Every structure is written in C-alpha cells, then in structure tokens.
Amino acid sequence: MNQTPFSMPNPSLYTEEDVAQLVHTFYAKARKDPSLGPIFEAHVIDWDAHFVQMTNFWSAQLRGTSRFRGAPMPKHIALPELTAELFERWLQIFRQTTEELGNPNLQQHANAIASFIAGRLWQGYQISNYPDKQPIALRTL
Ligand code: HEM
C-alpha cells in the first residue's frame, strides 16, 4: 500500500524505537481485546514476523523508509467476517495507544494515517466481499 496523500513522512521527528514502541504497545492492547484478539490469534501464525512487518509498515508511513513489502488490501479482504465495528474498535485502540505514547506529533500523524487506511481497507473489504451492497462508511473517521 502506498503512502497516504498527506502528512509527509519525517525521519527527524520519530525514531525506529518510537515506531517499534507504537507497534508493540498497540498489539499488547489489541491481542487482549475481546473482539479483535481472537482474530489476530487465529490469523497471525508468526508473531515475530508480524511485528517486523508492522514495524516496517509504520516506519514507511511515518519515517519514509522503504523496507515494507506487503499487500494489506488482499490480506484484509481475505479475513472472514470483518465489520465496521471491528475497524472502529481497531481505530479506538490505536488512538488510545498513540495518546499514551505522549508524542503529540506522532499521535496526530499516525492517527491521521490510521484513519485514512482503515477507511480504505473497510471500503475495499465491502466492495470485494459484498459487491451487491452499498458500502457503509466508518463512523469514527
Ligand atoms: C478490523 C481491523 C483489522 C483487523 C482485524 C486486522 C487484522 C490483521 C491480520 C490478522 C493481519 C495478518 C494477515 C496475514 O498475515 O495474513 C493483518 C495484517 C496487516 N494489517 Fe491489519 N487488521 C485490521 C486493520 C488494519 C488497519 C486499519 C491497518 C492500517 C492502518 C492495518 C495494517 C496491516 C498491515 C500493514 C498488515 C500486514 C499486511 C501484509 O503482510 O501484507 N490493519 N491485519
């Protein structure tokens, strides 16, 4: 997935440690969540590899690095029974995470990217899995 069309990545604002902390803090919460946790546990086979993948993704978005190799859209489209509520919960946990990290630049930047991509993933999910239904927007964008 390409970078979002706003908020230029800026490697002088955040370090790789900031990115790793974002990813690990988010997943510590998401894995414990009653609605999202079981989905991650069912579909993430190798957590070390997933952390590397997610750190590379957020490093690309926030710092402009180019290590990320992936295909988020087809991977999410393939997950069974995703809903608007699950995406909204994902965003809620993500925003709690960035608030806790106490870095206002990172909070604003990462939240904007997460909202944008969540909306795109959910739209792509609906178009692919429910082509005959009118797509619905996320309430928390
Ligand atoms: C309901 C919300 C979500 C759920 C349940 C979810 C779940 C998952 C799962 C299970 C995987 C691993 C898939 C696999 O390796 O086969 C994954 C990968 C990933 N997710 Fe999500 N996700 C959600 C929302 C998001 C959002 C909003 C973003 C970005 C802001 C995101 C970014 C990614 C990325 C970058 C990957 C790696 C894709 C790849 O390896 O190509 N996810 N997600």
TrEMBL record:
What are the UniProt keywords, alphabetically?
Heme, Iron, Metal-binding, Transport
Quick one: signal sequence residues? none
Source superkingdom: Bacteria
Q: Where are the transmembrane segments?
A: none
Which Pfam families does the UniProt entry name for this protein? Bac_globin (PF01152)
| Residues that, per the record, bind heme | H50
Q: InterPro entries, from UniProt? A: Globin-like_sf (IPR009050), Globin/Proto (IPR012292), Hemoglobin_trunc (IPR001486)
Entry keyword annotation includes Isomerase: no
Q: Which Gene3D superfamilies has this protein been placed in?
A: Globins
One annotated GO molecular function is: oxygen binding
Protein name in UniProt: Hemoglobin
